[in-house]
Amino acid sequence: MRMTIAEIKRIKSLSQKKFRDEYGLFIVEGKKMVEELVYSAFVTRRIITVQPLGFPVSGRSVEQVNAATMARLSALKTPPSVLAVVEKPAAAKLSLPAPEELLLALDNIQDPGNLGAIIRVADWFGIRRLVCSPGTVDCYNPKVVQATMGAIFRVKVHYTELPEFLQQAKQSTAVYGAFLDGENIYQKQLTPGGVVVAGNEGNGISPEAAAAVSERLFIPPFPAGAVTSESLNVAASTAILCAEFRRRNRPVIQ
Questions:
Q1: Which residue from 50, 126, 134, 250 has the highest number of Cβ atoms inside 10 Å of its Cβ?
Q2: Which alpha helices (H) appear in 13-136, and where do they start and end?
Q3: CATH homologous superfamily, domain 5-87
């Protein structure tokens, strides 16, 4: 079918946060991502494709366009074969973590690739909620959505004033953060649940959020004392922290 210039501009505008907020929509690109989408609870407004999908879409209508039109719609350097326009879910009420819930808190993460990777890590390790500071990149940014590889449909992302949330959480659960002066994570006792704070790529955890951290952790290099990189990428360090929490507290299989 032939799309109007106005339709193309509206969809293309969803690469910008102000229009995602205005219209309450975001875009999902790529065959695998759209297939994950149609099996999720997210509401799909439109599915637009260059070629037959090859998977069922549960009664949703599919619009076919040519490659040139898809290139105008896409936010990616290499346009996909399929793109969907999706409703942003209504913001859920943010509650404090349950006693044994492991939750991630992100303090001003700026890079879309890092946020997408962290959402994917959370999904892998069964962490169903992320709490982000207002300064963290929008989780519906096309680059974030793409980097999650479908995890965005299973992990809830909340935005709130992080220091206040952490101070409240600290009253009933442990709040962990990684610091160069922290205790070796492989030697420290870890609780099954808690909040793990990940900091900004350049500045780490802000002083305001750090004030609410009750347990300071350190991921040691190998071998101890070796000259290494100055620090780990925030997505990599978050993955290591999550893996260690889950390793310590995994259920025993009989």
A1: 50
A2: 17-23, 31-38, 67-73, 112-124
A3: Ribosomal protein L30/S12 (3.30.1330.30)
